[in-house]
Amino acid sequence: MWAIYRKELKSYFLSPIGYIVIGIFLFVFSVFFYLTTVATGNVDLGALYYYAALYGLMIIVPILTMRMFAEERKTGTEQLILTSPVSMTGVVMGKLLAAITVVCITLVISLGYFLIVNYFGSPNIAVVLVSILGYILISAAALSIGMFASSITENQIIAGVITIAFLIMSLFMQDLNSVFSNLAIMNFYQDFPSGVISLSEIVGLVSFTGMFTAFTIIIMQRRKLVK
């Protein structure tokens, strides 16, 4: 698993992808830092992380995940994965953890906004840390969805569109019927921006991540058996 993890993480930063993601992330954060903090004079950064998750993940998740399996299937390098001595679980987890690491790097950079606010006021560091914890969990859930989309097609664009469509649809499906509320991952990021660690939200996001990771493993395992 760790060999796959190192390979994937290196690939993000040996190509423009990692830098593009960090750039987009900082742009989104800067926009909402101005709207939720500077323009309002509010030192509570919880709203900053909430809106950065709501809108930012729709952009950076497809960029990070659409190439995971789709590109290797299209270029023919998927055969190396399918015949690798590493278990399919290790392959999938290595790729997912590499993408999560990129998000974590950007979140570390986001602490710069806390330092800026701290210079002028007294923001609550606990709220920021809890918000970051929740951001990591919701990012993992969204990334697992994108990874699954990449595993079912060889076209990166289609994988990206599927991911974006699911993330957008999840925001509105609950309005159609309350049954769909559990499919809206942002419903599991309501308490974190307030500095509250909710067990139900943690379980919901971890379950989301586990479910789509398992789906991806099943898809890839079936391809391995066919090959």
Structure characterization notes:
It contains 9 helices and no strands. The protein has helices at 2-14, 17-38, 46-65, 70-75, 78-82, 88-120, 125-151, 156-176, 199-226. The longest helix is centred in the middle third of the chain and has 33 residues, at 88-120. Helices cover 77% and strands 0% of the residues. Helix 2 runs antiparallel to helix 3 (46-65) and helix 6 (88-120) packs antiparallel against helix 9 (199-226). The two termini are 21 Å apart. With 227 residues, it is mainly alpha-helical.
Secondary structure: elements and pairs:
Layout: H1 2-14, H2 17-38, H3 46-65, H4 70-75, H5 78-82, H6 88-120, H7 125-151, H8 156-176, H9 199-226
Helix pairs in contact: 1-6, 2-3, 2-6, 3-7, 3-8, 6-7, 6-9, 7-8, 7-9
Q: Which word captures the global form? A: globular
Question: Which structural class should the secondary elements be placed in?
Answer: mainly alpha
Count of β-strands: 0
Nearest-integer average pLDDT: 88
Beta-strand share of residues: under 5%
In angstroms, what separates the terminal alpha carbons? 21 Å
Order of helices and strands: HHHHHHHHH
Radius of gyration: 18 Å
| Biggest sheet details | none
Integer count of domains? 1
User: How many alpha or pi helices?
Assistant: 9
Poorly predicted runs are: none
The helix content, as a percent range, equals over 70%
